[in-house]
Amino acid sequence: MLSFAYTARNPATGQKVNAVVQADSERAAAKLIKEQGLAPIDITLQNKEKTGFFKKVRTKDKILFARQLSTLINAGLPLVQSLRSVQKTTSSKPMQATISEVIGDVEAGSAFSKALEKHPQVFNTIFINLVGAGEISGTLDASLERLANQQEKDAEIVGKVRGAMVYPMVVVGVMALVVGFMLVSVLPQVQVLYDGLPGAELPLLTRVLLGISGLITKYWWVLIILIVIGTIFGSKWVRTVGGKKYIDGVKMHAPAIGPLFMKMYMARFTRTGSTLVASGVPLLQMLEITGKSVNNVHIEASVKRAIVQVKGGKSLADSLEGDSNFLELVPNMLRIGEQSGSVEEMMSRTADYYEKEVDQQIKTINTIIEPALMIILGIVALIIVAAVLLPIYSLAGKDLSGSR
Length: 404
Hints:
Layout: E1 2-9, E2 16-23, H1 26-35, E3 39-45, H2 59-74, H3 79-89, H4 93-107, H5 112-117, H6 125-137, H7 140-195, H8 204-218, H9 220-237, H10 241-253, H11 258-278, H12 283-293, H13 297-311, H14 316-320, H15 329-340, H16 343-403
Antiparallel strand pairs: 1-2, 1-3
Helix pairs in contact: 2-3, 2-7, 3-4, 6-7, 7-8, 7-11, 7-16, 8-16, 10-11, 11-12, 11-16, 12-13, 15-16
């Protein structure tokens, strides 16, 4: 339930009344106020931010919402009753607030898919179109089940790729902190030791690292400013058209991660396409939705070009064949699906294949990354230890020669 602060007039006395009412929507709140014999003047949603209305709804909550709703509708419960049951069981405050708004719109006569359209920050185009297709065909429960499966698989594969990227980043970050500490705190002590000895000269490696240490110590504030400015401008740049093209291009063609991202994009394209086709979404509409869902501007551009060719009478397989942004298996499987009338099944099989390939490649990358990081850490540690110990051994050698 949402809280609405309202101002109303009492027709009997002519006095204004200011109070708060609990309701699923503004319409429902107005109805409750009228039932009290009052004429509403102004109704305002109260504490919108506290309800978490503008906070992001997690993918896990959306998957749970679709799966639970599918089960309840399949059991024969009316839509509004099913929505209320799901609202009570979800622990997410933002999701509860969103479902309340949806319930209010559905009770007011709006179609379920149209009610979801009012919340684009929660429900994406795939979600809305699958629900709409389910409403039209009378298979809303099946559409919601397919939707939950698609979103679950997509979240799983993205999570695995992110997990593979996080480990090396954490190790490199810790290594940078340790190196910074050694440069700022330990190496200067070696210089202090040498400053008291006339004619003593530090080794070249130590002098170089001490120069870096001096820059960090004297101009740390400049480094912080540069990092802040770089972060601000970098975050803005990646949102521009040029930035997105560059970043997406790197993801697709980088030596180590390029094949992994390409397989992830193919899995996402075919899984989403299969789900939409199975729900009865027309081919061209499916391509428009799927192109955006891949989340890569180059692949989206290729899909847009394919849409134009399909409108001109070409098959989807022929439209994608030879496109460098698509792996060869995708148009080949689509051709088999088009010839046999089983596009949905072929896309689903292709998605299964690439999802397994992503799993295998992540395992391979992790196997390679661990020893590679150990070697890099060993080299860095050797350089730091050499910079500290070489001056000490040099002094010990001079003391020994002097004692003779």
